[in-house]
Design goal:
This protein has eight helices and no strands. It is mostly helical.
Length: 206
């Protein structure tokens, strides 16, 4: 793959990654509710989920999703319900220690990682959209597999960098409010963002 083709794809990936969607909303929710460490774990989970999703898309899953309304809706609703459930738990679970630093402060890093890994994998639009843009950068006269690997790695890395920026910004903003009442409301807001992200996934249409 020529450098100018790769660079064009990297820039396209960055523009896509910067647009806030359900994935970014869930990362911000974790940052506001549980702090930087948990937010960064959710970023790692999203990166793994994105990598799996785009790999599946290049392996043919996009064709199934594009032609099967049932498969599309199963992925969509599974991701939506999961995020909404996590958000409601975050809103209702306010009796834990009010701190952004320990595991008791909210979600555990492992649960944030697994949650966003599922969000990445269960987001059907990621699969369909990646196929739409990657097709513009794969040359049929060159071996397919090396090009596909480069695109998957590039997209995942660029999206992870963008998500990290969102996580650090949101967690830093949340730390500006240190009173117990402020932290309670920040956590509720974080849970609300997760619920909103789930609702956003539920409204996706083919």
């Amino acid at each position: 793959m020529e450098f100018n083709v790769w660079l064009a794809f990297a820039i396209s990936s960055l523009l896509i990654a910067l647009i806030p969607g359900p994935g970014v909303a869930s990362i911000i929710g974790f940052a506001m509710h549980s702090g930087k460490r948990v937010a960064l774990a959710s970023v790692m989970g999203m990166a793994v989920g994105n990598a799996l999703a785009v790999t599946l898309s290049l392996a043919g899953a996009a064709t199934i999703l594009a032609t099967s309304a049932l498969a599309f809706n199963i992925l969509k609703w599974a991701g939506a319900f999961y995020l909404i459930a996590i958000g409601l738990v975050a809103i209702l679970k306010n009796e834990q220690a009010l701190s952004f630093d320990g595991a008791a402060s909210g979600a555990l890093p492992r649960s944030a990682f697994l949650t966003n890994m599922l969000v990445g994998v269960l987001h059907p639009k990621t699969i369909l959209f990646f196929v739409a843009i990657s097709a513009q950068f794969i040359r049929p006269d060159q071996p397919y597999l090396p090009q596909a690997v480069i695109l998957v790695i590039t997209f995942t890395a660029v999206a992870a960098a963008s998500d990290t920026a969102y996580a650090l910004t949101a967690s830093r903003a949340a730390r500006l409010f240190r009173s117990e009442q402020s932290i309670r409301w920040i956590r509720r807001a974080g849970g609300g963002v997760l619920v909103t992200a789930g609702c956003a996934i539920a409204t996706i249409q083919k």
